[in-house]
Amino acid sequence: MTTSQQQRAGRRGTGTSTDDPAAAEAVFLDATLSLLAPLGVAAGDVVVDVGPGAGTAAVALATAVGEHGRVYAVDLDPVLLEATMAAARRAGVDDRVHPVLHDVEDGVPPVPEAADAVWSSWCVHHTRDWEAAVRALVGMLRPGGRLCLAEGGLPTRCLPWDAGIGRPGLEIRLDEAHDRHFRQWFFGRSGARRPGRGWDEILVRAGLTDVTTFSTLVDIPAPLSDEVRGVVLAELAARVGRAQRFLSEEDAAAWARLLDPEDDAWLGHRADLGLLTARTGFRGRRPGP
Is the pTM of this model over 0.90? Predict the structure, then answer.
């Protein structure tokens, strides 16, 4: 979600990291499909995608449910719902994708039928109360329905340990600064509740059984294609922008050079830029037949 979209949605800090979420979702498509697989979506299913972004997962789910199934895309931002529907139209599955404008913090989304499966990727951690949000998602499931959250994983690594600018370990310190930014943002909101437990236990406490955890590796080694390089640079710039106030002057200056296309040190010139991370999913089932 861009800054202007955040302002329209009335929720600062949520949504996608860059101005081109579709490009980022394309880079992580294989990982997304791997995390979707444990949902076991079949033809004719009713599925809910909470926080659909640019619509990549919604399109994959709509393809899986077939012409007799339905996918409900739930988001608090009409701009992202429009992007999801545009992606569905391009894929020829818009007849089975239905947008639902709703903020999960307001309770169970108003989906008109019980869901066989609910999917949410990198969305719930933006809510003030993770357990309440998960309960809202569980509330959409039919007995025996499945929920899968994609949350957490491992920090992304794109640079060598020594980038040749500033002190070595620049990306590690960016992780720390970004974590400080997120903590301040998260707890700076009225009503924010400390989770105090992991996602798997949150799913159990929400009433799900057969809870499992699984991860998928994203490993795109150097040299990167132009498309992947563009996403990596955009994501780094977004992270640096959010963490700026928590960076040392030395690190901020180093990042300014590395992200400046007019500087000789610009990361876009480097052949050793890569993309390595892991994304984690948490799956559970609502008790019943």
Answer: yes
